[in-house]
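Hypothesis: this fold can be encoded by more than one sequence.
Test: take the structure tokens below, design a sequence, compare later.
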């Protein structure tokens, strides 16, 4: 089922009928379509059958990259591609500077995603401890950022960073009360 939550187009899946036992909100990365991670719901339920009662939410990022010739790809905020090119070449100065600066557009993405998380908790009637946030790459950055800023910590955080997305600097900030799985993909 597709719906709109907090102004975002969201694909919603649940294997069982009735009220959900948990909410899992997964954010795609830069350049991926909004339904990029939808296939994970079935995989997660197959690996952990207790998730069959969970309701999965897959929000599409607000920015379309179609105007750049990237089809139905989306972004939570635009990426500074010249800086990314310098980072990929191993420029240590660029990496230090990259980690200091909040990406332009991230505050807006944070606000809309935080509203979505709170709306999901309200609509499902679930306490925050039964809401899990996650994502890949840019979506992982956003999910982590929001998880650390919520008044009440979510039940978990599952994120996978790619390369230098900035994720390696956040682990010390994760409070002990937040169950988190962080992975970093390397080539």
């Amino acid at each position: 089922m597709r719906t709109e939550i907090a102004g975002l187009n969201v694909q919603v899946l649940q294997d069982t009928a009735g009220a959900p036992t948990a909410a899992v909100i997964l954010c795609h990365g830069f350049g991926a379509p909004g339904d990029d991670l939808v296939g994970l719901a079935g995989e997660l339920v197959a690996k952990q059958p207790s998730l069959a009662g969970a309701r999965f939410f897959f929000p599409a990022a607000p920015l379309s990259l179609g105007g750049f010739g990237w089809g139905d790809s989306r972004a939570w905020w635009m990426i500074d591609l010249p800086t990314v090119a310098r980072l990929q070449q191993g420029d240590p100065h660029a990496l230090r500077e990259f980690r200091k600066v909040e990406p332009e557009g991230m505050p807006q993405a944070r606000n809309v995603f935080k509203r979505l998380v709170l709306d999901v908790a309200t609509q499902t009637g679930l306490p925050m401890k039964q809401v899990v946030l996650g994502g890949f790459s840019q979506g992982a950055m956003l999910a982590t950022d929001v998880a650390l800023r919520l008044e009440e910590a979510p039940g978990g955080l599952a994120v996978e960073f790619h390369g230098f997305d900035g994720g390696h600097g956040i682990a010390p900030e994760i409070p002990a009360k937040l169950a988190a799985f962080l992975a970093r993909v390397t080539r």
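Helices lie at 39-47, 81-88, 92-100, 106-124, 138-149. DSSP finds five helices and nine strands in the chain.
Hypothesis status: open.
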